[in-house]
Design goal:
- The protein is mainly α.
- The protein contains seven helices and two strands, in the order ααααααββα.
- The chain has a two-stranded antiparallel sheet with strand order 1-2.
- A hairpin with a 2-residue loop joins β1 (143-146) and β2 (149-152).
């Protein structure tokens, strides 16, 4: 993918549902693999500096714990990477959405250590970066349908990083 790097300013609004606009805007203007690298470093730094006893903190009744937010980031990255793989391979299947609130109770996040969550995050990100490295420019431009909405492979890459950045902002503002 070295000769096919994509920049966030190249994205067209037709490549993603407006729901994802804030994730993409959170990245400012950046190159795709640089966004992966920078957001991973930011989140790992956050986790390293997080006291272990804060993992189970939730800022309000009914809100996720820090551990649940971190696991949600990992789960979402894996789901979006799968979508990117499907669309890059020209799979025309209309993929379903997922209900994030249904995943959390079954994630076992609150029984994991900070180190286990970091390892999981690194593994998911390594998989995403490795996957996106295999994509040609043509593959990055392909799109598919998720819950009836068009989504391009390159938009998915930016959404993955923007989603992480979005939750990192919330963690810093509401959990610390």
């Amino acid at each position: 993918m070295k000769n096919t790097m994509m920049h966030s300013r190249e994205l067209q609004e037709t490549e993603y549902h407006s729901y994802y606009s804030n994730y993409i805007l959170a990245l400012d203007e950046t190159e795709l693999l640089e966004a992966f690298k920078n957001t991973e470093a930011e989140l790992l730094d956050f986790i390293r500096n997080l006291p272990e006893d804060r993992l189970l903190y939730r800022y309000a009744e009914g809100k996720w714990t820090v551990a649940e937010v971190l696991q949600h980031i990992v789960d979402t990255e894996r789901i979006f990477a799968y979508r990117a793989l499907c669309f890059a391979r020209n799979d025309k299947t209309d993929l379903p959405g997922f209900e994030q609130d249904d995943y959390v109770p079954y994630s076992n996040a609150n029984n994991r250590t900070k180190e286990e969550l970091m390892v999981d995050l690194k593994a998911a990100r390594l998989n995403s970066v490795s996957l996106f490295h295999t994509f040609t420019r043509e593959m990055l431009m392909r799109s598919g349908t998720v819950s009836g909405n068009q989504l391009s492979v390159r938009a998915i890459g930016f959404i993955i990083s923007g989603h992480l950045k979005h939750h990192l902002r919330i963690l810093n503002e509401r959990y610390l």
